[in-house]
Structure formats: structure tokens, C-alpha cells
Amino acid sequence: xxxxxxxxxxxxxxxxxxxxxxxxxxxxxxxxxxxxxxxxxxxxxxxxxxxxxxxxxxxxxxxxxxxxxxxxxxxxxxxxxxxxxxxxxxxxxxxxxxxxxxxxxxxxxxxxxxxxxxxxxxxxxxxxxxxxxxxxxxxxxxxxxxxxxxxxxxxxxxxxxxxxxxxxxxxxxxxxxxxxxxxxxxxxxxxxxxxxxxxxxxxxxxxxxxxxxxxxxxxxxxxxxxxxxxxxxxxxxxxxxxxxxxxxxxxxxxxxxxxxxxxxxxxxxxxxxxxxxxxxxxxxxxxxxxxxxxxxxxxxxxxxxxxxxxxxxxxxxxxxxxxxxxxxxxxxxxxxxxxxxxxx
Length: 344
Description:
By secondary structure, the protein is an alpha/beta fold. About 50% of the residues lie in helices and about 10% in strands.
């Protein structure tokens, strides 16, 4: 089977080949030389560490910058209850963007917290502002699914090789990418360490400094809730809580809880730049999610409907019952069923 890296050379050569034979009925020396030369060029390119010039910027498919202020405005309007995460992520992205040429490694972040607290939502917001067209987003925004992409324990070595090859080839075609590892707690232990050369920018065949890696995990979710309730019981408001209150417990949780980051060199070698706590969402934040969903659907929301949707949401843990146990994760389904109930 022809290697994909020089398959395009081969196809292009064949087009010239068939055009020549259709007209003259035989292969003229010039066309024959072109076919062989193009094929051999592709072959030796594949065998070497030579990186083809990046032609994607010519077509706008490899963006080098984006409007961080637009992202900030979108977060303010649509992302609720996460003042710590907002501050860390915006600062990290702005710093990474402004000093991209002097970066020593790509930006690596770990988003930690309960289901429904906004981890996936924030990555989608980041991607939609970094890559403003759907076509570019499909090329440059990559989601690796912990639950479905690493099913068989016996295939770990295969998964490692495939993961490294996929990430490397994406960066080789364009150095600006966002890689999101969703449900990292389902990834088998040890797989992610294969990426260390890329995450430290030590693979000389690529320059990974302009890409961003985000690991999403529930690891640390319980520790965040415990710490939050401890601070709350001492009279410390949510808005007064800081990253320093959670940073150490997040690192320990990621390193010790079962999952892709357990005992990982990514943590041991300080490759992860930011451990970002996603606080559990309270009733007020759920209300904002409901209002935002109705606004998105361009439908009117009255107080009675709002109350009915809130009744569908479970709160815990006992006895405080401060937090929505599934955050805003199921709000769109609740809103859809409630807003269309008159059609049933």
C-alpha cells in the first residue's frame, strides 16, 4: 500500500501519464521521467525528516492569530459560574498568543471538575473563536474521546503509535491546532506519555509550540466540592475563592486517581501548565443556562416555565444541596421538552 505522504505525488503523476497515453498511445520519455521522478521524490520525502513547506496559510486553512477580546466577550455572555477558570484560560491563551514565537513548548491545560460544569463548552468556545470557519475548524480542532477511542486493553501499544502519528501529522500539516482529550479519566494509564516529546517540543521533525492541548477529566471533581464546602463553611464566598485554594488538590487528584493522567510523566515532568478548577454550578448558574438556552431558541421564558425546568434538576450533596449534580449538561434537553410540551 502506498504511503499517504507521497500518495498525492503518485496520483498527480498518473494523471499526466494517462493524459499522455490517451493522446499518443504510448509513454513519451518526458512523461515517464516525470512519473518516476515524482514517485521517488515522494518516497524519499517520506523517509527523511524534511518538512514540506506549509501551504495552508495561502488558503486561510492555518490561522496564526485570533481575536482574544471576542472570545472574552463570548465567555462573559455564555459561560457561567466559573470565574477562576475564565481568568486562568483567558490569561493563558493571551500569553501564549502574544509570545508564540518565543514559546519553548505548546500550551497544555487540564480542565477538572464535575460533569456539566462547562469543560467541553469552554473548549468549543475556544475553538470557534480560534477557527472562525467550519471548514478550518474541522481541520484544526481535534477531539480524542477517552471512552470510545481506547476500548481494548490489549491494543495499548497500537493506540500509542496511532495517537503519536495522528497528532504529529496534524501539526506537520499546520502548526496551529487545538487537541482536546475528552474524558481523560477513561484513557488507559500510560498512553498519554507517548506524547511527551511533542508536548515538550522535542520532536525535531515538527514545531508544536503554536498548538494547544487540553485534557478534560472528572478527576478532582469530588476534591473540588469538598474544598468548596470547607471554604463556604468558613464564610468565604464563591467569588472570593482563588486558584491557590485548589491547585495542589487538582494536581494530586489527576496524578493519583485512576485514568489517563495517573502516575503520568505529563504531571511528574511539569508538562501541564495549568490545572483549571471548574466549580460545581449552583441554582443561579442553572437559571442563567436556562435563560441562555431560551434566548438561543428565540423563545419567551416566563417564570412558571423556569420553575418547572428547575424542578427537573437534582441538587446535592446532602445536607447542603448547593450544587446541580449534572450542572447545565441536561438543560438543553429540559428546555427543548418544556418549550415544545404544547405540541404533545
